[in-house]
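Hello forum,

I keep getting stuck at the same step: I have a sequence, I want structure tokens, and every attempt I make locally crashes halfway through. Rather than fight my setup again tonight, could one of you with a working pipeline run this one for me? It's a single chain of 80 residues.
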Amino acid sequence: MSYGIRGSSVTLYEEQPSWDGRGDWSKLGIAQFRYEDGEWTLYCADRNSRWHPYFDADSSHDIQDLLDEVDDDPTGIFWV
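Reply #2:
Ran it on my machine without issues. Output:
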């Protein structure tokens, strides 16, 4: 797991070694958290790595609420 920060967004990544053990590691976006107007909003990626609002969790002042939602993954959208 790793993360990246860009502006007011934090993206959570899953990293894996190359299948043959010789190439670069791959990086897959799992979730994105955007901060606006004092609240965090959760986004999920589609199969083309485009981010879309995740409507099953409300925005929150505490990013931990959204991290817990990703960890629990009640809809099965974040973890395969």
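The chain has one domain: 2-72. If your local run keeps crashing, start a new thread with the error log.
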